Amino acid sequence: MAEVLYRKWRPRALDQVVGQDTVTNTLRNAVSSGRLTHAYLFCGPRGTGKTSTARILAKAVNCLHPTNGEPDNSCDRCLAVNEGRALDLIEIDAASNRSIDDIRDLSDKINFAPAEFRYKVYIVDEVHMLTDPAFNALLKTLEEPPDHAIFILATTEVHRVPLTIVSRCQRYDFRRISLDDIAEKLAELCEAEGVEAEREALELIARHSTGSLRDAENLLEQAVVSYDSPLRSDQVRDMLELSGDEDALDLCQSIVEKDVSESLNIVNKVSTQGSDLRQLQRAVTDFLRSVLLIAVGADGTAGLSDDTAGRLKSMSKGVDQRYLFRALKAISEADLRLDTASPLPLELALVESSIEPVSAAAPSPAAPPAHTRRQAAPPQRTQRQAQPAANRTPARSRPSRAANVKSSPARSQAPANGGASPTPPRSGQDGSLDPATWNEVLRALRTTGARFKLGALLRGSREYTIEDDKLIVRFAHGSHVERINQEIDNPSVKRELNQALSRTMGGEYELVPELISNENGSETRRANQSHLVMAAQRMGAKLVDRYEEETEQ
User: Fold this and answer.
1) pTM for this structure?
2) Distance of CA 300 to the CA centre of its chain
3) What are 316-324's contacts with CB under 8 Å, separation 24+?
4) Each residue of 432-488: pLDDT tens digit?
């Protein structure tokens, strides 16, 4: 069986690693000066040389005759690594060996001295796949490793590696390889393999590999197997299904010209032909991005042919940048994962981007002034329901545990345009807040809170008033005040609270919880025990007077 290109031409020295000069120079200096560490963390996208660099480092630290930090690839130790028979180089696939038992087995064997090398090197690939207990077991080994052991951890998702592990390693970030570097490397491989290939064909492969040299080498081998030598750009386009680039350019042209009907026709034509709509989406997104970059004066033609670059430059002249940005955002966010054959997501994105956003309308001049709204008549329904609580008189006594209540002014009707900003909260002469606005505040805060939900806590309030830029909320029990203050001390909760108050009350207000004073606290609680008074208060009524119950002597 023939060996695949990416394994056959795997780099065997640090100077052969493509596009990672910063990493390789640092490692070369560390080996030549003898300043090695017990753990390294290699992180970066796939196919950028992490595992290859780890193997080269394992050779360099054990080579019998290193030269300027590079392995000589001729001694017995280097040959053993190259041929895959080195006993002291242990490679572990964390995706398959991710349990705590696997790490315990590693920890038990690590204390044994190397069989033939100076250092026993452990390469743990895709280390982010380990379980939490396995990470904890590995952490103990990294804290107190034996002098003869070196760990090299490789991962494509470093954010999933615990910080306790990262902090005990020297971290090296591998970046995506540039298009020019990949194209140059592919040209070297073609020369070594005796394959003729057009430069444009290699650049197409490099652009499609998105910075991964391994992917580019696999695509090159696939193209050589499919079409043999010489390799032309049209053959690569056909293999990568890039023949629709002309359709993508046409679609980009129609989008720039705001021709929605032509855009929809192109999408439906591509869908009818059975072409990959996701590839069309990617191509159109790239072209629109290039047009936008050119329009703002940046270079957006990197990796594109001269014909394509010239056509995109002509599109960028006099383009509506806001519309182009809106179209680029809508098309890039179109979700084709559920049904790759349906053109509907792209069609919706095209139509959505063509609709001009509606600007916020100015407030209606016919709206009544604020002082008129504040003096509006109380709602009759509230009066009818609250009045019986004040007029009910028990036998042989004056009114007991009841109160004359008056309702807060009704909330004014919202503007008909629906686009105006929220009006400031309505309050009476005593500073009472409009009950409708208060209910909006409670609904907005129903999910806000780390331990306790503010919406539920505020529903237990007895009074709520506005004083300047403060929303004063009074409670009969100190536990409510303590819990609200505890939640407000949390910066994220306070930020959500301020946003909710600003959105519902139309301005910046500070929530201040207070406990009802002892002088009137017991009396207020006793009056509020009446279910009729509580029902009236929930509908917006306020307590204005009370009477002591007279008993017979």
Assistant:
1) 0.58
2) 26
3) 316/291, 316/292, 319/256, 319/291, 319/295, 320/258, 321/292, 321/295, 321/296, 323/258, 323/353, 324/255, 324/256, 324/288, 324/291, 324/292, 324/295
4) 677 888 888 888 888 888 888 888 888 888 888 888 788 888 888 788 888 888 888
